[in-house]
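DM from R.C. (forwarded with permission)

"hey, sorry to bug you on a friday — could you get me a structure for this? deadline for the figure draft is monday and I only need the backbone to look sensible"
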Amino acid sequence: MKKEITTSIVIHASVEQVWSALTDFANYPNWNSFITSISGHVKEGSRINVRIQPPQSKPMTFKPVILSRAECKELRWKGKLLINGLFDGEHIFELSENTDGNTLFVQREQFSGILVGIINLENTRKGFERMNQQLKELVEKSVQRFDLKNVRINSEHSASSNPPSIFVFGW
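My reply, with the result:
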């Protein structure tokens, strides 16, 4: 049996800025209430330690193997409960740049194994959504952006020797 959870959020920042926050694992305890820690060398083939705290659930620690780490694009690992085939999860973070320079952040997990049908994944889904929102807030707070649609040059002074005034709205 298989199940999948897929969540996404648009973050008003570049993929590089989102990737930097996502892969700053030492900072997770300061902002991430779902994945509270990641330790180990995060490279393909390595085993890491991940501690999660789904809402209204007990914390869990597991040791997945990194399947993929593509800079500013994807981080993927696969974990298991005790043995392969009992309850396995392939966790994927995907980042893609929108045409407006923002980032679509997708967090998903593909579950398989004989216990998938009896395990309720709703708290895990809530944890994904909460982490996505917390990542968005963290990155957007750290990014100062000018929305060029809200910048107007005062052209009254353009004929004089004084430089034009710039008014910024929405700041």
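R.C.: lifesaver. The chain has a mean pLDDT of 89.
me: no worries. The first strand starts at residue 2 and ends at 11.
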